[in-house]
Amino acid sequence: MANTYSIGEFAKRIGRSPSTVRRWEQEGKITPKRLPSGHRYFDESDVRAMLGGAPLRRVTVVYCRVSGSGQKDDLASQVKAMET
């Protein structure tokens, strides 16, 4: 089968953890397809449905702190690193 995904692969494609995908299945929020062996799988239509046509965007937040005015240079270099 082309473009089929295991739970782990599907979770990675939609930016979630496999445990979240399993929980969603238990809650009835998603219904995976099943192979004759009973293994669950997802396909591209499931990925599109979860992403709503647009990829999820992750944001990284960096916290910088200085203790005193003697560390202003450190703060400036941290700000510069965050801007690049």
TrEMBL record:
CDD domains: HTH_MerR-trunc (cd04762). Residues 59-84 form the Resolvase/invertase-type recombinase catalytic domain. Gene3D superfamilies: 1.10.1660.10. One of its GO terms (molecular function) is DNA strand exchange activity. The lineage of its organism: unclassified sequences, metagenomes, ecological metagenomes. This is Protein, MerR. Coiled coil: none annotated. Signal peptide: none annotated. Residues 4-51 form the HTH merR-type domain. SMART domains: HTH_MERR. GO terms for biological process: regulation of DNA-templated transcription.
